[in-house]
Structure formats: C-alpha cells, structure tokens
Amino acid sequence: MxxxxxxxxxxxxxxxxxxxxxxxxCLAEHGWAAATVSVVAERAGVSRGAAQHHFPTREDLITQxxxxxxxxxxxxxxxxxxxxxxxxxxxxxxxxVVTALVESYSSQLFKAALQVWTHAAADEALRSxxxxxxxxxxxxxxxxxxxxxxxxxxxxxxxxxxxxxxDLARGLGLADVLTDDSARRKEIAEQWAATLHVALxxxx
Amino acid sequence: MxxxxxxxxxxxxxxxxxxxxxxxxCLAEHGWAAATVSVVAERAGVSRGAAQHHFPTREDLITQxxxxxxxxxxxxxxxxxxxxxxxxxxxxxxxxVVTALVESYSSQLFKAALQVWTHAAADEALRSxxxxxxxxxxxxxxxxxxxxxxxxxxxxxxxxxxxxxxDLARGLGLADVLTDDSARRKEIAEQWAATLHVALxxxx
Lengths: 204, 204
Hints:
The structure is a homodimer.
Chain A: H1 8-30, H2 37-44, H3 48-54, H4 58-85, H5 90-104, H6 108-120, H7 124-149, H8 156-174, H9 182-201
C-alpha cells in the first residue's frame, strides 16, 4: 500500500501495477466474465474511480495487463537464459532453455491470456486489439528463444524448430488448464530437448 | 430435413445429430456465451422443446457435442491413416500422419472445444464433466497417432515423441484461433515430421 511519504508519481505507478497484476489473477482464477474493472479494483484494493482513471475501459485494462505481464516474463526468461549461457553449454543448456520456455506457458499469465484469446475469437473489437499483441508476443518469444538457445535463426531448420518449441510450449500450457499436468510435461520437455539438441547440432 | 416416410427413430437420430453439429458451429463462431440451447435449436431448425427432449441441459448438449465430434474426427483420422499405411512408408508416412494430426487440431471442432475448456477453467460443474472427457480425448488421440505412425509405444522415446506431437498440434491449433496461421503451420509440421522421423528411426 502507498505510504504518506511516497511521491505521487510512484504511488500512481504502484497503483497501476497492482491493477495489472490483479487483472491477471482474476482472469486466470475466475475467467473472462468475472474480470470486470470493479472486481479487479476491489481485488487490488483500489477505488473504482482510481481504476478507471488509469484504465478507461475494461479492454484497456485487460490488454495492457496481458502485455505488461508478458514483457515482465520475457525479461525474466532473457535474464535466466543469459545467466545460463555462462554456466551450461550443449545439451544441458538446451534442456534448461526448453524447460524455462515450457514453464512460462504454464503460468498464471498463460491461463489469463488464454481467457482473453478465447474471448477475442468471438468479439471483433477485442480481436482487433489482441491480434497485434499476439504478433508481438510471437516475435519477442521467438527472439528470446533464439538467443537463449544460441542458434543461428537464418538457418531454416533452426528457425522452424525454435518455432515448433514455442508451439509445443503453448500446447503443453493448454493441457495444464483443467488439471495439473506438470509430471507429464516434465517428461515431454526432457524428450523434446534431447531430440531438439540432436537436430540442432547435426551437421547440415 | 425429415421426410414423412422416414421412420421415427431415424428422424430422432438425425435431429440429434443436427443439434450436435450446430452446437460445434455456434461455439466455434460465436463463443461460449452465445451457445445456448435456444440459439443452437434455431440454427439446427429444431424446436426448443425437441432440443430439450434430447439434451435436458446446456451442459449435456455441449459436452455431448464435443465428444461426438471428437469420436467422428478420430474415426476419420484412423481411416485415413490405415489407407495411408498401405501406400506410403518411411518419411512420407510420418509427414502425412503429422499433417493429418496437426490439421485435426486446427478444425472447427478444436475451436469449439477451446471455448468449452477455457470456460470450464472457472466453472467447477462444467470442469468435473470435461476432465474425464479430456482424459479420453488424450488417450484416444495417442492410440490413433501410435497406430498411424506404426511405432512401438512401449519404447519410452517413441511414447514421449508421439505425446509431444499431439501437444505441438494443440499449440498450433491455438495459434490459428485469431488469425489464419496455415502457411506457418505447414512449415512447422514439415520440419517436425522430418525431425520426428529421424528420431523415431535412429537405432537406440
């Protein structure tokens, strides 16, 4: 919570961030219909008026929440991958990167984003806001994965296998929505990492 | 539409099937909220009373629609795969099976099922009906894929790579919900089929 000595601008930034995080939690736990500005504001401990000052419409709140949390998550994956690159090499690095990517897509953020994507399928106004965000998410996730794996993206085999790894991660995320799929997911990620590593390092 | 000479039982079966198909179309095109018994009945050209005779609740209609369409689809994939096994062998067969599986998950049925799965995440009553259906879907799709690829499922590498192929297909299906992803999907399926074929045929 804000303290009396906190500068006004910092308080405003903290309020905004609490709203964005509460939006993700509401979407992931209670679904699209429940994630209204009022419910999110209450969860964040912010008045409805203050919430609407930051986010005039529900669509503003929801799309900005997904984008903010995605950016935060990708910064984490990038930092983890850079730290990793200095320690592990070879198959161990590939496994660590595949595991980090796969776990990203089984997060609360993925569950929230799934609610938004699915709702956008039948809501033209929301869809027109989500399509550019989806394109950005795809681009950034691909770049982070390429850097983390240390592969040459101009090689079409490497390019397509990195894409496939992200599609696999998305599919595994979907399999975790209704039940805890973590044990099976771990086995799949291990096998995928081993197969991917051989494919990426086979001379062409 | 039913003709006066059609036996009553056949008419009833045809009505039921029209309702199940209309449910999938409503879900895929207009989303969860729009797929009510009334809307589906109207789309199927069936009275609301007749629809409720077949499916007392909306959950009955929706879960049975997803199960029926999944069974139908898997029968098709199985028949295609059996025909395939007599023509193609080796890498061409692997590519054909991967393509058929991937395209299954980008169908109208997948888009409908995604609406149901996503809604079930925040609806305990629906979730308790969908979780056993999800388990069945996973089991049957795995068995069909194993038979179609002609691999030994008791080999853990083959088992996990077949699972990964289905997870990849699910992820690619999700990428097709808001935009037409068919061109990218084709490239990913081709690369994965090549990598999978090498991995499955490398002596262990």
